[in-house]
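Form P-L/3: holo structure prediction, ligand adenosine-5'-diphosphate.
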Amino acid sequence: MGEALLQLEGITKRFGATVAADRLSLTVFRGEFFTLLGPSGSGKSTILRIIAGLERPESGRVLIEGKDVAQVPPWRRGLGMVFQQYALFPNMNVARNVAYGLRVRGVPEDRIRSRVAQLLALVGLSGLAEKDVTVLSGGEQQRVALARALAVEPPLLLLDEPLGSLDEKIRREMQVELKHIQRQTGTTFVYVTHDQEEALTMSDRIAVIHRGVCVQCDVPEVLFRRPKTRFVASFFRGSNVLEADVVEAVRGRLHIRIGGTVIALEASGGQPTGSRVSVAIRAEHLRLGPRAADRRVRLIATLRDVVYRGTNVDHLLEMADGQHLIATSTQREAEAVGSSVPVGFDLEHVVLLEDDRSAPSA
Ligand code: ADP
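OUTPUT (holo model):
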C-alpha cells in the first residue's frame, strides 16, 4: 500500500477520568487522504494534537517517516496545520498571508511571487492577491489558510474540521476542491471531521474513532457497506441496526430469527445458539409491498409513517417484536400508513455486527 509516513503505536491519553486516546494504533501512508471520523468528544482533535506535538501522550509512540518524534518539538516536525478558525494575519493581504512561511524561511522574493501565484491558482483565488483578508468570505479565508499551509510543502498536513464553520453549499463545494488539491499536490492529509458524508466524499481511508478507540479503519466503501460493529453501523446514517436471535449455530453458519423469519448467514463463530446478535441492513436495500416479492428474505411489518426527504422518501416500519426499520426509496410506496406490508431484502445486504462494548450513548 505504499510507504508509511505516520505511525501511531498504542497511544493513550487521559484527561482526568476521560480517555481521549485508548491504546490507539494506526498507519497513514504517503499521499493518502486519511480521515479521523467520530462524534464530538471522541478524541479526534486530541489525536491530531498528539501528532502535531502540541499534546504529549501518556504512553505509545508517534513515528514520522519511521522516526520516533517524542523529543521533536511541533515546529520541527515538518507538519502543516489548518483549523476551523483560519487564524490569518489580519494586517496582511492575501498574498502576504500565503507568502508568510516562505519569507520566514528566507526564500528569494521572485520565487515567493511565482509560488504565491501558483498557490492562489490552486485554491481558486487568482486575482485576490492584493485583497485585505478581513473582507473575504469564510470560504475564501479558508482557501487562503490552506494555501498558506501548503506554501512550504509540508509532507503531512493536519486539518481539524477546516470546513466546520462554512455553510452547507460552500462546504460541499470545498469538499470536492480539497480532495482535488490534495491529489494535485500529493500532500498527505490527516483530516478530522464528525461529518460522515464529508469523510466519505473525500477520504482514501477513514478511521472511525469512538471514546479514543479506533473501532474500524478502512476505505469508505467498506465502512459504508460492511460496518464491523453496532457503533459504526449506527454512525453512518441510513443503516437499520436490528437485534436477532441465534436459533442455530453450525459450521460457520448462523441461523438467526429477525421479525419471525429465519435466515442463514456466514459467521466465523462465537455466537452460541440462544444468544442475541445485531445485524445491519441499509435502508435503501429494503423493498416494500409488491417490490418485496422477488427478494430472498421477506418479513411483515406495519407502515407507521412516511417522511418526504426531497431526493428520497423514508418509510418508517415496525415489526411485530417492536423493532423499528426504515426503508428508503426514491418515491412514496403505495401502501397506506397503518397497514401491514411485506418488507423484502437480499442476504448479501445483511451484515452481522460484532459486539461493541462501547456502543454509542446517543
Ligand atoms: P473530538 O475532537 O473528537 O471532539 P477531543 O479530542 O477534543 O474530541 O476531546 C476528547 C475528550 O477529551 C473530550 O471529552 C474532551 O472534553 C476531553 N479533553 C480534550 N482536551 C482536554 C483538555 N485539555 N483538558 C481536559 N479535557 C480535555
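COMMENT: Confidence is low (pLDDT under 50) at residues 358-362.
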